[in-house]
Amino acid sequence: MKENIQEQIVRLIQAALKETGFGQSLAKDLYLDIPAEERFGDFSTNIALRLSKPLHKSPREVAEVLIRALHKQAEKSNLKEYIAEIKAEGAGFINFYLNAKYHYGKLREILLRGEPALRINLGKQKRVLIEFVSANPTGSLSVAHARQAAVGDSLANILEFLGFKAKREYYLNDVGNQINILSKSVALRMKELAGEKGEFPLDHYQGEYIYEIAKEAGRQKINPEGLGDFAANYILEIIKKELDDFGIKFDCWYSQKALEKSGKILKAFNFLKKKKLLYESDGALWFKSTAFGDDKDRVVVKSDGSYTYLAPDIAYHDDKYKRGFAWLINLWGPDHHGYINRLKASVAAFGRDPDSLSIVIVQLATIFRGGKPVQMSTRRGEYITLREVLDEVGRDAARFFFLMRRTDSHLDFDLEVAKKQTSENPVYYVQYAHARISSILRNAEVKLNKNADLTLLKEKEELGLTKKILQFSYILNVCLKTRDPYMLTVYLQELSEAFHKFYDLHRVLSDNTALTQARLCLIEGARLVIATGLELLGVSRPEKM
């Protein structure tokens, strides 16, 4: 089957809605779920529950009418080959049961075509720019930045896999007050190193790294007016090395300083002025963001003539679109939540669809060691850095663990669990499944035959593993819709569990050559999906452990 089964079932439901006259407005807002219990089929829709209230009918009544239409529509489509049953169950869910022909056929396709069989071209080469991390170059990356890095890079991998042209960008806030404070912090430490005593303000950067920068600036005889740029570039090199060791490479490092020098901010203001969307009040320049749904207008130039944060952001996002990107995704920390409406208002002010800008809020992470949270203090420069986590648990565990909760949920990262070489460690559990399968395939005396008789796979655990393998494309679609790679970590653990359960109960290698070949095909399908999933998360795929 070349077409994606979920898309075909959605079209089937749309056709049934048209035939019955039910909920035409919902036809474009359809989605499928995978039932929590296998006994309820392969896919499920709650469309009958959603239609119940407007139709003044019980969900079960709506479901029964729709099912009759679904059967009629299925008879006229290719799906009649693959659908075994369509049932109304529970409170009114419509469940779809696929037959063995579909399950065996799709597994065969994965075996014969490999990774391309797992891809769905949902993106159709649409250009997407994902901006993430974008930490000020004033210190090493924290675990909060590390979590954003893991989410952003994995999301970009998934989008590329689904047919989007995704680019990764780091917005470098290399100008403004924080750079001035950085410059003063280094200057004060240089004086201290030279033997001068003085007070060090609490709002300055306190970390030991400031001493290292001060020493290097002294060795290179950096002029006082150049200290800010020198220190920012020094720290930026550290950040780049940390990200490189974390497996993350940006396509573009976009400088705010260069943006301001380019004149693009003034051009953006001139555009807004012509549309009468900028006005002066109390000596400041205001953006009329309330015209686009914001709760109040926003200052873009303060009374002292300096820009607010919004001013360069307006021009920066206008420039993103002008560079040809149709969809912008920004990953922000929770302290930026209130900033969303004003930025979307600026997108609308330029005549663009505000929904083409997606903001993903990535909640903070708490690092645990020995069952106790590690205390952090940014002001004093005492916080757990990405480098410390990498040195302690390694890239694989760090990336996987940072993705193990929904991005909008707080994450607890236990360093001790991440270091364990047992099934208690989720990334070890998944990697071990891949290594175990690789070992079986490597040591099998029977050669893998991708045309083996898959109908011999009849045991409950064999069928359960097959169905779990075939859920991969559905899971990636969920990651796309939620802009969150979290569900892929859950799925890989479930797939590994399904493999281990099968392997513990059934011998792969036996005297029955035909059955052995079928089971080798089954575990090769699982291995391929696990390998692909781990690659999308930026985690290695060991063949030996």
- As laid out across the biggest beta sheet, the strand order is 6-5-4-10-11
CATH class of the domain at 104-122 and 425-536: Mainly Alpha
Which whole number gives the mean pLDDT?
94
Fraction in helix: 40-55%
Description:
Helix content is 49%, strand content 12%. The mean pLDDT is 94. It has helices at 5-20, 47-55, 59-75, 100-113, 143-161, 177-193, 209-219, 227-245, 256-262, 264-274, 310-322, 340-349, 386-402, 415-419, 426-443, 460-469, 472-482, 486-505, 513-536, and strands spanning 43-45, 83-89, 93-98, 127-131, 165-172, 252-255, 278-281, 284-287, 298-301, 327-332, 357-361, 365-369, 372-373, 411-414. It is an alpha/beta fold and 545 residues long. Helix 6 (177-193) crosses helix 7 (209-219). The two termini are 36 Å apart. The strands form four sheets. A five-stranded parallel beta sheet has the order 6-5-4-10-11, sandwiched between helices. Strands 1-3-2 form a three-stranded antiparallel beta sheet. Among the domains are: 5-98, 2-Layer Sandwich (Gyrase A, domain 2), CATH 3.30.1360; 104-122 and 425-536, Isoleucyl-tRNA Synthetase, Domain 1 (Orthogonal Bundle), CATH 1.10.730.
